[in-house]
Specification:
The protein is an alpha/beta fold. The protein is 39% helix and 14% strand. The chain has 27 helices and 26 strands. Strands 1-14-13-12-11-10-8-2 form an eight-stranded parallel sheet. Strands 19-20-21-22-23 form a five-stranded parallel sheet. Helix 23 packs parallel to helix 24 and helix 26 crosses helix 27. The chain is globular, with a radius of gyration of 27 Å. This is 5198_t:CDS:1. It comes from Scutellospora calospora.
């Protein structure tokens, strides 16, 4: 017996984002169900053969593929389909059979992920359908988003999809034995939420007994198909968990181990997989008697757990230990010497047949391959490893463990040369940047006056109405925009023509916002590929890939830039575009920047210094941009920090340290301005109430924050208070459906139960980049109509009068009840 090599999950989109294009073609009606399924089968086949036959992996995963999200896949598989979708798409129980027609299932599945809207014309027999999408949330501390399962107190589970089995059988038909990947039943329930109006004492974990029969059925199906092992992902084991949950894990895996017995008597091996953190505080959940055959631990994010886990596993003679020694979340080459030492230590204690070499987590979070990166700086490229290269590293480490370090002598020498060159490279260290960091002092991290004093001054300048309206920043990135950008980068369009094209898009964007009577405008961000990549392209210390795409959610892919060295800003980035946009309107236009923590979180970050130092460098670069925007007359500046909560450590004990330095970095970036300059920020798709004190300490004048898709849960706690201005998102932008005024009115009424009327802004959940112009136009029209209705809503026996001067005092309007008279100033 020997050490084995394994992968926990492979990127789904394809080397050239083939899945993204085909899924979007399906959504737009250009291809049908069969065509989409055929593309998926071909991609899966290619990935299995690549990993097994071309790269030489021993253990290849299946069921790691998804059309949208693996958590949604599992909720769908066990029949956790909320009633609102069942009522529309599920006609009878036959529709829920695992072998039922896929087309009906795909419609249901994508409606859960994206929402669904159908408004037939007059005389049509089709019903009106208007379904909102399910909540979306960050996957632990990554930039991947998952769909949050919904559970009800009397939830009935039923095997609804055979995807897990179909993929296993398909791989087998190509001659590849795979290890199916399943989200463990405990983590699936812990990642979900109770439906609204559930009893306050109801927790989804209480449904475990009802869920387990479906999981047992899944295991039995795989056993009958000949599967040798199953990977059960239980990532929640790295979280702070109630000790009572130990019994839940014991109950679940005792039941599953019994179901795993094949008719031949040889059971399927159950491999329990953890990642993103340290499981030592929860080792008692696993040992001494959890009936599993293998345990995977992440030794990149939590190397300190190795000896404790090794000691615990050593006491169980047949238990295999999977070592996550190759970084599944970052793109730097592994130090093969270091990885070999770790694996050798495990082999010495356990024996070769009980050790598996693997990535720290699924490779979902890294790009496909370096093969396409022909334009990357050769020195920087030599430091990198994407998914394909990481599997090669895993195979090499395994080979060295089995045959001795000399068996990979040539590869090891090349690896160590690369590691040493990177460590000593002059590209990494910039003395001027390091010297500037020494000059940072506490005064640079605080505003000049308190919020109430700033608010008074800003009201005198802006004279915004009650319930001011705005958007988050981006507007539709149409095919024409992407085509023009590509032509410019290829050299097929001159800079002058490209700049004119961008100006035309900005003008159209300003005109649409003015037509819909928004109060604070944006320029639309048409010159930006991505909110992080764009700024990184204008900073030193960054490198950029041609094809380094990773999935963020659904078909949405991002191309994270690479921070390889000290970061600084050589020259202004956004001032010219901001000045041009402001010249087109008398209303204020926001300057749009990405905050330092989000620049960090959404990049592939250097691993040779503490993340705090890198973020401080980014903060100083953004601070320079803020100062220049203010100097050129931009008096509202938005510094987005959607990733602030995402970066929160998974263990509560580490929260304070992170929040202290991350908020300090935001303040360093934002606090150079005068009181009359209004600082905004934006956050989305996380549990923000967890960090409400840190959000208060950021001391922004206005925060816009995703709320509609998550059901306003940020505002739900009885203890919620927030004294600065805030714009909880009033409609979901990740769905193609047009929000109705009635639903936005309802949300605004709910906000008024928790927030002061004078502090509320009205805005969408997030940027409008992924939407179409007609969707944006109608949605913003509805949104501003709702704001106006509430702005002048009757109070005090039915009559109020409000006198309001617009920004440049060109108009005033007298509102009496629901009537208005507009008068032009003379």
């Amino acid at each position: 017996m020997s050490v084995l090599s394994a992968n926990l999950g492979f990127p789904r989109m394809g080397a050239n984002r083939e899945l993204k294009r085909q899924v979007e073609a399906y959504w737009s009606g250009k291809i049908n169900d069969s065509a989409l399924l055929k593309v998926a089968d071909e991609l899966r086949k290619n990935h299995w053969i690549l990993q097994k036959n071309q790269l030489g992996l021993d253990i290849v995963p299946s069921n790691d593929f998804s059309f949208y999200d693996q958590v949604l896949d599992h909720a769908f598989t066990v029949g956790a389909i909320p009633k609102r979708y069942r009522d529309v798409f599920i006609k009878n129980d036959d529709d829920l059979l695992p072998s039922a027609l896929e087309g009906n299932k795909l419609s249901t599945y994508f409606a859960m992920a994206r929402g669904f809207q159908q408004f037939p014309g007059e005389g049509s027999d089709l019903p009106v359908i208007d379904l909102e999408a399910m909540e979306m949330k960050k996957w632990f501390d990554t930039n991947y988003h998952y769909i949050v399962p919904e559970f009800e107190p009397n939830q009935q589970f039923k095997l609804t999809s055979s995807k897990f089995l179909d993929e296993y059988k398909l791989a087998k038909s190509f001659g590849v034995e795979t290890r199916p990947v399943l989200i463990g039943p405990v983590s699936l329930l812990l990642l979900g939420k109770a439906i609204p109006n559930s009893p306050t004492d109801f927790k989804p974990i209480q449904l475990l007994e009802g869920l387990l029969p479906v999981y047992e059925e899944i295991v039995r199906h795989l056993a009958e198909a000949g599967a040798c092992s199953i990977q059960f992902d239980e990532p929640c084991l790295v979280m702070d968990l109630d000790p009572k949950l130990a019994q839940s894990y014991h109950t679940a895996y005792c039941r599953l181990s019994i179901a795993a017995k094949k008719s031949s008597g040889e059971p399927i091996k159950i491999h329990l997989t953890t990642y993103f953190g340290d499981i030592v505080p929860n080792l008692s959940f696993i040992f001494p008697d959890l009936p599993i055959d293998g345990l995977h631990v992440d030794l990149i994010r939590a190397p300190e757990q190795f000896e404790s886990v090794l000691s615990a596993v050593a006491k169980h003679p047949t238990l295999q230990l999977s070592l996550g020694v190759v970084n599944g979340r970052n793109i730097w080459k592994s130090d093969l010497n270091s990885a070999f030492d770790t694996v050798s230590r495990a082999v010495a204690v356990l024996g070769a047949n009980r050790v598996i070499v693997a990535p720290s987590c699924s490779l979902l979070h890294t790009p496909h391959s370096l093969d396409a990166e022909t334009e990357l700086n050769p020195e920087v490229k030599d430091w990198l490893a994407f998914s394909v290269e990481k599997i090669k590293e895993i195979v090499l480490i395994t080979k060295s463990a089995n045959n001795g370090i000399d068996s990979i002598k040539v590869e090891l020498e090349d690896n160590q040369r690369s590691v040493q060159i990177r460590r000593k490279s002059s590209k990494i260290h910039n003395p001027a940047v390091q010297e500037r960091l020494k000059g940072v002092n506490p005064d640079m991290k605080r505003r000049r006056s308190t919020f109430d004093k700033r608010w008074t001054k800003q009201q005198e300048i802006f004279k915004l109405p009650r319930f001011p309206t705005t958007t988050i920043g981006s507007f539709p990135q149409t095919g024409e925009v992407r085509k023009a950008r590509a032509a410019f980068k290829r050299g097929d369009m001159s800079k002058e023509k490209y700049d004119e094209f961008i100006k035309d898009e900005i003008k159209k964007c300003i005109q649409l916002q003015e037509k819909n009577d928004l109060d604070v405008l944006v320029h639309g961000e048409f010159e930006r590929t991505d909110m992080v990549e764009f700024f990184g392209e204008h900073l030193e210390g960054y490198a950029f890939t041609k094809n380094g795409w990773v999935q963020s959610y659904g078909s949405r892919c991002v191309k994270p830039p690479i921070i390889y060295g000290d970061v600084y800003r050589p020259k202004p980035i956004t001032t010219e575009v901001a000045k041009y946009a402001q010249s087109l309107t008398k209303k204020p236009v926001k300057g749009m920047l990405t905050g330092p923590v989000t620049m960090l979180q959404w990049s592939f970050v250097r691993d040779d210094q503490h993340r705090k130092l890198t973020t401080q460098q980014l903060a100083l670069a953004i601070r320079d941009e803020v100062t220049d925007l203010e100097a050129c007359g931009i008096s509202i500046i938005q510094i987005d920090e959607p990733a602030l909560r995402e970066g929160l450590p998974l263990r509560h004990s580490a929260w304070k340290e992170y929040l202290d330095w991350s908020v300090d970095c935001f303040l360093l970036a934002s606090s150079s301005v005068a009181d009359i300059t209004q600082i905004h920020t934006h956050m989305c798709y996380s549990d923000f109430f967890d960090i409400i004190d840190a959000i208060r300490r950021m001391d922004v004048d206005v925060i816009t924050i995703e709320s509609s898709r998550s059901g306003l849960k940020f505002l739900r706690p009885e203890s919620f208070t927030y004294s600065n201005e805030i714009g909880p998102g009033i409609y979901d932008i990740h769905s193609p459906r047009i929000p109705r005024q009635e639903e936005m009115e309802h949300r605004l009424e709910e906000m008024l139960k928790r927030l002061k009327r004078d502090n509320i802004w009205v805005n969408p959940d997030c940027g409008l980049k992924t939407r179409k112009w007609d969707e944006v136009d109608l949605a913003l029209k509805n949104m501003t109509e709702v704001a106006k209705k509430f702005r002048y809503k009757n109070t005090n026996r039915g009559i109020i009068a409000e006198f309001h001067y617009f920004v440049f005092k060109t108009d005033f309007i007298i509102y009496v009840g629901d009537k208005d008279v507009s008068l032009r100033r003379e």
